[in-house]
Amino acid sequence: MKPELFFEKLENQLLDEKPFVAYSKPGLRERETKAWLQITKQSFNTKDFTESGFVFSPFNAAEKTYLIPTEDAEEITTEYFAEENSEENISEATNFPPVLTNAKTQKQHEELIQRGIESIEKGNFEKVVLSRSEKVETQLKAIEIFKNLLKKYDSAFVYFWYHPETGIWLGATPERLLEVERNKFKTMALAGTQPYKGTIDVHWREKEIDEQQIVTNAIFENLKDKVSGSIKKSELYTSRAGNLLHLKTDIQGALDKSTKLKQLIMALHPTPAVCGLPKEKAKSFILENENYNREFYSGFLGELNIKSEKKRNSNRRNQENQAYASISKKTDLFVNLRCMKLEAGKANLFVGGGITKDSNPTEEWEETVNKTHTIKSVLVK
Ligand SMILES: C=C(O[C@@H]1C=C(C(=O)O)C=C[C@H]1O)C(=O)O
């Protein structure tokens, strides 16, 4: 479908106040942008993750997960090109939109981090991810922001979600929660942040390496009784996400036959990359101390049990090339980071960072400021 028509359909869906999601997966420059437009106005939720569709799930798993079921949706696709070198110079973009949040925020956030560090020192938990939200002005419409995200962030999962009960959310996340096809799964441990300054060949302090190691270890621990055989991991490497760099380990393996998708998702979510370790203690600290509702920030979103067809050509001799079509179901979920909730002329951005015993409150504040730049740079013309 031509991009003009694709975007027009999204706008009409928004005017009709019907749920939809449009998204593009990380990787290829000439990538596909897909959308699921819900046909009815009904509100769907999932509890057991057995349906086929697109899910939008909050940080707090006790709250509702929204679903756009494939059987109640029109699927459309287009090709929308990212610009050459689009991810360059983001931090040098000087015209960020005006901040509407008041100046108390830095002090409040540093105090929150200080409380987190003290709680770690008391032995309550090892790591906690603490976040804040920030409101900024924007003259752009949601669809223009989405186009900017697509153009700018070729290596992220870029999305535009709308549901009458959740409002409009947009983002460009570097973090995959889980990919599952047949009995194979993939996930990642992503943590540690520094600004990108033209090279990915950088030095990482022990603090960041430890922080990332906590995430890798926790994923291994949480998945150990859900897999068959051993879990494999890549070397630790530096990965770029727009104006930032992170430390990353790719993790993959085969699932045990008895493992249900829901069990697997809940074993991972929320990972210590967005919550902490141990999970429940860190989560309670977050819910009691952050003083605002994360809603869908640091939740997850993506394709759930979507049919995928693979055509394979057999190369057997003396046989004409035959196309084999094998159909399987695929799940591909991302952690909702570098995101915003959009309300008439205002964008509410969400940013956080991992706190360990070695964290420094002012540095952590600066890290959240840098994280806001990823989103702020798409809010101006
Ligand atoms: C919590 C966020 O990001 C997460 C926290 C990171 C960190 O603490 O260094 C790095 C990447 C993400 O796993 C965020 O972007 O808001």
TrEMBL record:
Q: What is this protein called?
A: Isochorismate synthase
Source organism superkingdom: Bacteria
Q: What is the lineage of its organism?
A: Bacteria, Pseudomonadati, Bacteroidota, Flavobacteriia, Flavobacteriales
Mind telling me which Gene3D superfamilies this protein's record contains? Anthranilate synthase (3.60.120.10)
Q: What residues does the Chorismate-utilising enzyme C-terminal domain cover?
A: 106-308, 324-371
Q: Which Pfam families match?
A: Chorismate_bind
PANTHER family found in the cross-reference section:
ISOCHORISMATE SYNTHASE ENTC
